[in-house]
Design a protein that fits this description.
The complex is a heterodimer of chains A (104) and B (130).
Chain A (H helix, E strand, L loop, with lengths): L4 E3 L4 E15 L2 E13 L4 E13 L2 E13 L4 E13 L4 E7 L3
Parallel strand pairs in A: 1-2, 2-3, 3-4, 4-5, 5-6, 6-7
Chain B lengths: L5 E3 L4 E7 L3 E4 L2 E13 L4 E3 L2 E8 L2 E13 L4 E13 L4 E8 L1 H26 L1
The chains are: A mainly beta (104), B alpha/beta (130).
């Protein structure tokens, strides 16, 4: 049984979240290390830290390192950091600065 | 999103700090200090740490110091640590291994002290005004 983890708009979480095998949606703030199967960072979210997942969509403010097999950077995203992925798409309007590399 | 309430899924583990929460449901494992308006610890949930909340509903495991206005411990709940409450509901089967403190009297006494001080202050002020 795996269930979605939802970090709501007003919520601030700081620490280590391991949701292996399940989905995480962040609408609020998260700082630290986040592991999951699928991750969606919504348009007004703020993420700072390390993100490791199979499938990731970045929509908010992202700082740090993101490692994902499949990575989508949405048009609302502002990303500063290192992206590691095997399949990348970046929507028109997204602001990305940093490095992009494949997962070896 | 269909889901407006913060929720920690049953397979998830979190350790750290949770702040600014309004209403949160915990079905996974959490090690944190939490201040919120409403918290639910589901039957698959386990929470370690302090909780300050208006309403606490526990169906899972809790260990720590809790301060809450209303506490509902369901039949599957297991509690250890300390529970400070104003109103408590416990279902048959709830397992408590903790200190339980009914603390509404403390606040009542403090309020009475404050009002009596104001009443004492007033007679002194009235002659000055006259």
């Amino acid at each position: 049984m795996s269930e979605i983890t939802y970090i709501s708009e007003e919520l601030v979480m700081e620490g280590n979240l391991d949701a292996a095998g399940s989905s995480v949606v962040v609408a609020g703030r998260f700082k630290g290390e986040l592991r999951a199967k699928d991750v969606l960072l919504e348009a007004n979210s703020i993420f700072d830290g390390n993100l490791i997942a199979d499938k990731v969509t970045l929509g908010g403010l992202v700082k740090g390192e993101v490692a994902a097999n499949i990575l989508n950077v949405a048009s609302s995203a502002k990303v500063e950091g290192n992206l590691k992925t095997n399949a990348l798409s970046i929507d028109l309007g997204a602001e990305v600065s940093g490095s992009i590399s494949r997962i070896s | 999103m269909a889901n407006k309430q913060a929720i920690l899924g049953s397979g998830a583990r979190f350790s750290g700090k949770i702040s600014n929460a309004k209403s949160i449901e915990i079905n996974g494992y959490v090690e944190a200090d939490l201040t919120t308006e409403k918290v639910t610890i589901g039957s698959t949930g386990k929470f370690l740490g302090s909780v300050q909340s208006d309403l606490v509903v526990i169906a899972g495991e809790y260990e720590g110091k809790m301060q809450a206005d209303s506490v509902w411990l369901t039949e599957t709940s297991r509690i250890s640590g300390e529970v400070h409450y104003k109103s408590l509901q416990m279902d048959r089967g709830a397992a408590l291994n903790c200190r339980v403190v009914h603390n509404w009297n403390e606040n009542e006494v403090k309020l009475e002290d404050e009002t009596s001080q104001i009443q004492e202050d007033n007679p002194d002020e009235k002659p000055i005004k006259k």
